[in-house]
Amino acid sequence: MKAIDVTASSQPNSNDIEEGLTFRPKFDASGLVTCVATEANSGDVLMVAHMNEEALRKTIESGEAWYYSRSRKSLWKKGETSGHVQRVVEMRMDCDQDAVWIKVKQEGEGACHTGRRSCFYRAVTNADGSAKLSFVDADKTFDPAQIYR
Hints:
Blueprint: H1 14-19, E1 33-39, E2 45-51, H2 53-62, E3 66-69, E4 74-77, E5 86-93, E6 99-106, E7 122-127, E8 130-135, H3 144-147
Parallel strand pairs: 1-6
Antiparallel strand pairs: 1-2, 3-4, 5-6, 7-8
């Protein structure tokens, strides 16, 4: 099977990027695009991560979410260690093709390495002119120490 081409082989004009149907992801200087993953049924934001060309290609080919870790400088498949796989239901590109949105079926207990369903478990509030965090939907759904050894 031929690998899907996710490289930008030429520089089309902005109208082609914004209004056309040619898939031309615009990777940043580090070779990455931002990816937002939401739960397909609820619409809840589960996580934000990054994809390089290989992660994007593997996600499209396999139907499962692959990402690139900036801290580890390596490719990783969501759920490879935890078993909490993300099965892609739909993938969308933003208007200038520098961000990806995937709607996923989250399998397992959660998406966050902290043991929560979502990585977005704290709200930002303005308390007397200072930004403060408070927990929302912060209950742990699994013990990360048991999964990530």
